[in-house]
Structures are given as C-alpha cells and as structure tokens.
Amino acid sequence: AQKVTQAQTEISVVEKEDVTLDCVYETRDTTYYLFWYKQPPSGELVFLIRRNSFDEQNEISGRYSWNFQKSTSSFNFTITASQVVDSAVYFCALSEDFETYGQNFVFGPGTRLSVLP
Amino acid sequence: NAGVTQTPKFQVLKTGQSMTLQCAQDMNHNSMYWYRQDPGMGLRLIYYSASEGTTDKGEVPNGYNVSRLNKREFSLRLESAAPSQTSVYFCASFSRTRSYGYTFGSGTRLTVV
C-alpha cells in the first residue's frame, strides 16, 4: 500500500530564512508520481510540482527547489529566503498509477509553515 | 476562467438534515473526485467518477452519495448529516494529459451541529 509521511506538523521560521519541508513516501510500484500542493490561509489548493519516478533530476523554480531521492524514498521541498506569503499548509502526495484516473492519489497529512516577519 | 467551481462555500447544517454539494468543471476532464479534509489527516477520497456515467467509492464513502450528472457536473449528497461530517470538502477534476494532474475547487466548509 502506498503512504506519504510528512513528519513535520508545524514549522515556524523568520522571514528570509531557508526552510525544508520533508516528505517520505512508500510504494511498491516502480512507476509513480509525486506532487506538492500549497494551501494558503484562503483555503484553495495550489499545484506546485509533479515529478515522475524515473526522473530524479532536482528542480528549481525561483525560490522553490525540490530534492527527489529514490534511495531514501524522499521528495523534499526547500524554500529559499522565505517570505510571509509562503505561510501555508504544504501537502506532499503520491500517485502510483497515473492511468487509473488518480483514484489512488494519496496525500500526506501536511506541514503548516509559518513565516514570521 | 477555466477551472472547478464548487457551491456553496460555507454551510451549517443541523444533525439529520440533508444537503447537496455542487461541483462543475469546464475543462472537459473525464474524471472527477470528492475529497474531505480534516486536521492532521490530509485529504481523503470520498467518491470518484472515472467517466460520465460511472461512480466508485473511495476511502471514506459512508454517509455520502454522489451523482455524475453529466461530464461537467459531479455532486455530493449528505442524506442525514452527522457531526462527524463536519469538514472541508474539495471537488477536483483530473487530466492525465496535463502536468499538474488535479485541479481543485475552492472548497466547501461544512459544519454539522
């Protein structure tokens, strides 16, 4: 069975600090997809990134970067020079089979990030 | 703007009352989903519809029913609301051809008293 663990329930940082949100996943499939979503205080869910299991190349998008390591089953998310607007709940998610319309899409419990001015 | 539209945004029900949460998407996606979000538990799948005319149970279907009215619309019904159904409900549609997978609605905050 697939599982996503986000061990950090809440993190508080001061603005401009770097912060890493951890995500550890479990799956028996060799092909799978990992996601990060952001949920700001307004409540909507905002897609951030999707990675395929066969592409371990790290990705950077502005102040955001993602480190995907199959050897440790981790897909960690780093925000560089955090800003108050980064305050949100961040969810990591896993889908084992993209062809089955996503019904086995599993979310982690989320990490609440508070960036203090 | 293209996306997923949910109504209502907020609702308070008394125990035993019924209501239907509405969801519509205009992206021509085949599959649609209903999730509930509870503190510390992430999102859990209630029901999904892989295509028009089909529906299936997810992880937590008890107490809910769904209707895939057409390709655009997927509604969630609570026949007899219970306090345990107090939650935030999200509708989503899914595209295998888009890099992001799910598109979520803005959510419905439901309180059952």
Uncertain regions of chain A: pLDDT < 50 for 5+ in a row?
A: none
What would you call the structural class of chain B?
Answer: mainly beta
Number of helices of chain B: 0
Shape of chain A: globular
Mean pLDDT of chain A: 90
Notes on the protein architecture:
The complex is a heterodimer of chains A (117) and B (113). Chain A has strands at residues 3-5, 10-14, 19-21, 24-26, 33-39, 46-52, 59-61, 64-69, 74-79, 88-95, 105-107, 111-116. In chain A, the strands form 3 sheets. In chain A, strands 2, 5, 6, 10, 11 and 12 form a 6-stranded mixed β-sheet that branches. Chain A has 117 residues and is mainly β. The model of chain A has no long low-confidence stretch (mean pLDDT 90). In chain B, 0% of the residues lie in helices and 50% in strands. In chain B, a hairpin with a 6-residue loop joins strand 5 and strand 6. The model of chain B has no long low-confidence stretch (mean pLDDT 91). The chains are: A mainly beta (117), B mainly beta (113). The interface between A and B is medium-sized, with 22 and 26 residues.
Can you tag this structure with a few keywords?
heterodimer; A: 117 residues; mainly beta; B: 113 residues; 7-stranded mixed sheet; globular
Question: What's the layout of helices and strands?
Answer:
The complex is a heterodimer of chains A (117) and B (113).
Chain A: E1 3-5, E2 10-14, E3 19-21, E4 24-26, E5 33-39, E6 46-52, E7 59-61, E8 64-69, E9 74-79, E10 88-95, E11 105-107, E12 111-116
Parallel strand pairs in A: 2-12
Antiparallel strand pairs in A: 1-4, 3-9, 5-6, 5-10, 7-8, 8-9, 10-11, 10-12
Chain B: E1 4-7, E2 10-13, E3 19-25, E4 31-37, E5 43-49, E6 56-57, E7 64-68, E8 74-78, E9 87-94, E10 102-104, E11 108-112
Parallel strand pairs in B: 2-11
Antiparallel strand pairs in B: 1-3, 3-8, 4-5, 4-9, 5-6, 7-8, 9-10, 9-11
